[in-house]
Amino acid sequence: MPAKLQKIKFDDLQIYFGEPYTVNVESAEGSITLYQPTIGDIVKIGYEKFYENLNIFVANTTMYRTMLWDIGIDWNEFSDYQLFLLLFKNIDDKIVEPMFRDVKLSNFKPFEETLENEKRYILYDEKNHIEINEEVYNYISQYYRTVFNIHPKDMFTKGETMKKLWIHKDKRNAELNKFKKNPDEGKFSLKALISSCVNHSGFKYKLSELKELPVATFFDSVQRLQIYEQSTALLKGMYSGMIDSKEIKQEQIDFMRNF
């Protein structure tokens, strides 16, 4: 199984305020600045198109295991970076422009290089002398996973029988999904989140103002509203005698807590 890359800690406050983040590491030439799209950016581009491109940066091999298996690749032996290199050609510059304002990803071409007798594959922009190697990719991937609160679970297995079982299950679910009256039922919906917030008395942004919000700020508001409602419900239950206060932890009634 591929080795897990070191987890990167980003500044929560900077992400909340939509501050750009510059990736500048010793192992790669040049630097790349990452930007947060606003809700308005996603609306303008189109939800489906945007998330198809975003997915290339945040996906793990488990999410693509059936596709990989069908082309003869075992997802258990394939890294997220290798998956990224495989999918990179599908990125549309216009769609990811709010994320990469200073560079065109179409300028990056795959190269093979040898360092200390070890081959590695990189993407390189010869015009601007910028390199995307595995370390840079790790920053990009983890940054946008943090911003969009997307944390895919790695599901690895060693036995051939279990591998084939997972693939069979994935394909069966895909077939069953074709016959659903509403195949999108249960899927994440940005429109549903926006509608819920705009129609909530505790949400302070109008639609026009919402378009200017960095996505992380919006997702934070969604979670904060949920925590507020849960805390309020617990307090009402405690004061009415319907809930035993001894069973409730203090942090559960603090809507200003970290999450």
Task: Describe the protein's architecture and organization.
With 259 residues, this protein is mostly helical. The protein has two domains: 12-156, no CATH class; 190-253, no CATH class. 44% of the residues lie in helices and 9% in strands. The chain contains eleven helices and five strands, in the order αββαααααβββααααα. It has helices at 12-16, 39-45, 47-58, 65-70, 80-87, 93-96, 134-147, 160-178, 190-198, 207-210, 215-240; strands spanning 21-23, 32-34, 109-115, 118-125, 130-132. It has a three-stranded antiparallel sheet with strand order 3-4-5. It has a two-stranded antiparallel sheet with strand order 1-2. The protein is globular. It starts with 11 loop residues before the first helix and ends in a 19-residue tail after the last helix. The relative contact order is 0.14.
Describe the structure using short key phrases.
259 residues; mainly alpha; 2 domains; 3-stranded antiparallel β-sheet; two-stranded antiparallel ribbon; globular
Portion of residues in beta strands equals 5-15%
Helix content: 40-55%
Mean pLDDT: 90
Q: Terminal Cα separation, in Å?
A: 31 Å
Structural class: mainly alpha
Strand arrangement in the largest pleated sheet: 3-4-5
What's the count of strands? 5
Computed CA radius of gyration, to the nearest angstrom: 22 Å
Put simply, the count of helices is 11
Secondary structure layout plus pairing:
Layout (H helix, E strand, L loop, with lengths): L11 H5 L4 E3 L8 E3 L4 H7 L1 H12 L6 H6 L9 H8 L5 H4 L12 E7 L2 E8 L4 E3 L1 H14 L12 H19 L11 H9 L8 H4 L4 H26 L19
Antiparallel strand pairs: 1-2, 3-4, 4-5
